[in-house]
Amino acid sequence: MTFVDTKRLSLNFTNCPIQLFNTEKRVKETLVAEKGQITLYTCGPTVYNFAHIGNFRTYVFEDLLRRTLKFFGLKVKQVMNLTDVDDKTIKGAIAKGITLNAFTQPYKDAFFQDLATLHIEPAEVYPAATDYIQPMIEMIQTLIDKGFAYKGQDGSIYYAIRKFPRYGCLSHLKLDELKVGASERVAADEYDKENVSDFVLWKNYDPQRDGEIYWDSPFGPGRPGWHLECSAMAMQLLGDTIDIHVGGVDNMFPHHENEIAQSEACSGKTFVKHWMHAEHLIVDGKKMSKSMGNFYTLRDLLAKGFSGVEVRYMLLQTHYKTQLNFTFEGLDAVRHSLRRVQDFIRRVQEIKGSADSGSVAPVIERTLYAFAKALADDLNISVALAALFEMIREINTLCDKGLVGDSEAAEILEFLQKINQVLAIFTFEVQAEQIPQELQDALEQRNIARQNKNWSEADRLRDLIHSHGYIIEDSVKGARLKKIERSTK
Ligand code: AMP
Ligand code: ZN
């Protein structure tokens, strides 16, 4: 009998280095974790609406990163901010005639509900920007004192990008080749590379635009710029230098570029050791976004009958550096794959009274090794999942031959539980299916008809059951009903 050699298999951060692509350096780098700890900053939602599944692609990727780091034995301190003051939230609050807090709170609540539905592990801290206005004001003062910031004619405070030679390091912009300078300024939070310019740190209060929403500061009443919010919260909660900072690719410029400029000018230290960016979820070749109107919220998909786990798996299964094209056919395929895994789990759970054969341990060892190695290679989830499905195929074959014993079945389940710490897509509780009583009765009558060799009656009852969307599955515990999978198109 061969049991799984767990010692040999305890792959961890020390014996299995993690390689992650660093956007700034444009190469895969070995992650360095001092004292086995990683600080992780992840740009969070702007709470002016429900997050869409494009946003959740990035958050699910960040969850995979977090869970992988923990899988390899690292301690993670993750911060995800909630942007509850910016152009969009203020506009929304004014349009509804309510306070900023009253406007954003329901979207914050909905966001946390959605995270739970998608099995996204909570971050250690979710700071709201409105709770960090004072540190933001202090950062601006430091930037003014150090000569990196100035007051514009409109009364707002701007960051002078020419004063920061590293400006452009992340998105690889060459400032010399661009026409930028103090004469060009941008007050909006969002703009593109065509409009590289000094950006706003503190927006001067404008009663027409801001209603009653403003904070007092040494530079006059107003509110912080969006980019400053992340710099201030990240440094307050994680220190001057962060191990990993993550966001979607659209955050790279100008948001993350501006975060580097603000933070490094203030502290004089490297802001982030390792930058990572997730590619977009796209629809018909275009980025899913609220402004394009081509988006689905998680709630839209739940209303169409999909589960949180199905949406999670759909968002998880493609490598984060590849664009993911959203289709309903793709979601149907996910449903099918998950069914396969759940059927497999149920089959293994039902093994009882069988002797071990020694054939299972090598399969588990091989799979765990392939799974861990794939994740350590820049979170190569497609290879990791391929290893899982290969294992299911192999063990199903062993089950067919009666070669999986009781303790081997237990080891398979333990292994699946271990990898589920990363994937968070399996269910181990036996789900009581809500099968209508009349169909349960029909199954009972069919069993009796078969015992009495009344084949025509047995067939009639089988067809009746079938017409209600169930098939009869024979198992060691006797016949039972199973719902037929239907496409949701
Ligand atoms: P926002 O609320 O627009 O600030 O976006 C929150 C997060 O979602 C950011 O990290 C964005 O980069 C990310 N994001 C926005 N749209 C998409 C998309 N279509 N696919 C993947 N990530 C996205
Ligand atoms: Zn941010």
From TrEMBL:
Record flagged with keyword Metal-binding: yes
Keyword ATP-binding: yes
One MF term in the entry's GO annotations: zinc ion binding
Signal peptide (from-to): none
Location in the cell: Cytoplasm
Cysteinyl-tRNA synthetase class Ia DALR domain span: 370-434
CDD domains, per the entry: CysRS_core (cd00672)
HAMAP family attached to this UniProt entry: Cys_tRNA_synth (MF_00041)
GO cellular component terms listed in the entry, alphabetical order: cytosol
Residues reported in the UniProt entry to bind Zn(2+): C43, C230, H255, E259
Motif ('KMSKS' region): 287-291
Cofactor note: Binds 1 zinc ion per subunit.
Keyword annotations of the record: Aminoacyl-tRNA synthetase, ATP-binding, Cytoplasm, Ligase, Metal-binding, Nucleotide-binding, Protein biosynthesis, Zinc
Enzyme Commission code(s) on record: 6.1.1.16
Catalytic activity: tRNA(Cys) + L-cysteine + ATP = L-cysteinyl-tRNA(Cys) + AMP + diphosphate
Family classification: Belongs to the class-I aminoacyl-tRNA synthetase family.
Motif ('HIGH' region): 45-55
Cofactor or coenzyme needed: Zn(2+)
Entry binding sites for ATP: K290
Protein name from the UniProt record: Cysteine--tRNA ligase
Gene Ontology process terms (BP): cysteinyl-tRNA aminoacylation
Organism whose genome encodes this protein: Parachlamydia acanthamoebae
Known partners and oligomeric status: Monomer.
Gene: cysS
